[in-house]
């Protein structure tokens, strides 16, 4: 369903509930008239204000005109003594008009701009969905590169000529092409022209050439190819560039936590943001926020300003008291975007106030911009600077959270500790530059091989922790053994010297431990047992090896 269809459905649902909503407001007004008090007046004002926001969002111009007048008059009474009879009668008239407005005319359509059809944010493809073509007429070279990339978990297809590649490309386009410039069926000029067209259509092109001279590189630059490698291309560098070019480091879309006491507004804004590729968790109660944060780690918070019991400013202050979200962007939604309100929300720790009548494309652009900043802040604070994996603190947090969830819902989580074998010798022999290549290669292999729901972190030095929630034991063991095996086949090159590195690992499953700390100790025990037994192997509890 398109966003426009979804919006039309939400509008119909809102219109269906609108008469009852108006009657609820009238009932509150009648109670207030009988017993005038500040608490009831605030409740009436809040409901009118919310209806104003909904009317603006769904294009109900007649209703909005009446509600604008009601809101203005009620706002003037909030900090004033009980009004005189003429003021009450004036409000009676407006509330009566609001009630009579139910069936008059059709609402004007909400503003849905043409720009909304083109999302300003495109979430990354799932890692395993990227397909790579290697076009290399030397069968041995092509086979070697194909084998190495497949060890990293890539989907790779090798072609001996450009013509056979085009047959497949026209049916199922590749995401990235590794292109040799000396092929039997196409000239260099024609290949550069083709590369230019591929890049225009978002298919990345990496040149693999035996020539690295200025003239050839200049031709490649003018063809807008993404990268240029002189043969033999170093596999670890090639993998890193592939990850960067295809933006494969992003595991998930930008995430937004939205809170509005009106379900219609939750549905509308959630649908709007999801149509642009964001992941949204919409809540209609402020009390649901803290439990939601146990499973959903947002890059951005959006709170309605006027909500019963807990308003948006109070909720923003509460979020700011959580260490993890002290720097996360918070936006506040309101139909009242006066300077006074803007100042109030900034003083409460929020970043900005957005009017509910903001044009959809502008609203989405602001949300994406701030969510990206929140993601970058959260990532820099939680990621290891070299590998991009979770740092020591955050992988422990993820592991503990997954363990607690598994215990609560009676599911399973695998916690694994991996260590690079003889890594000190790698550093001593090939220098820290060589050691860093190995660490990066393992990080890329993990990112490529595991699910988006899994967690990987650099525990310290050459030691890594993996957390695999809700995976059956035989499958987890097989998956991690496959990673270990693939890594042992990767060829590293430093100063012209080739070498390989192996891994040792210890696995533990949550049903083996009474406490989370017990799992850590047992995983470490298994890891050192793997080292003692000769390295390049996994050790699990005896019952799991049967």
Characterization of the model:
This protein has 546 residues and is an alpha/beta fold. 52% of the residues lie in helices and 16% in strands. A 5-stranded parallel β-sheet has the order 2-1-3-4-5, sandwiched between helices. Helix 1 packs antiparallel against helix 2, helix 1 packs antiparallel against helix 4 and helix 9 runs parallel beside helix 16. The protein is elongated. It holds the Pfam family Hpt. It catalyses: 2 GTP = 3',3'-c-di-GMP + 2 diphosphate. Its EC number is 2.7.7.65. It comes from Shewanella scandinavica.
- What is the helical fraction, as a range of percent? 40-55%
Secondary structure: number of strands: 17
Strand line-up across the major sheet: 2-1-3-4-5
Q: What overall form do the CA principal axes indicate? A: elongated
Strand share of the residues?
15-25%
Rg is 30 Å
Low-pLDDT regions: 103-127
Structural class, from secondary structure content?
A: alpha/beta
Average pLDDT for all residues: 84
Annotation field: number of helices: 19
Question: How far apart are the termini?
Answer: 49 Å
Instruction: Note the main sheet.
Output: 5 strands, parallel
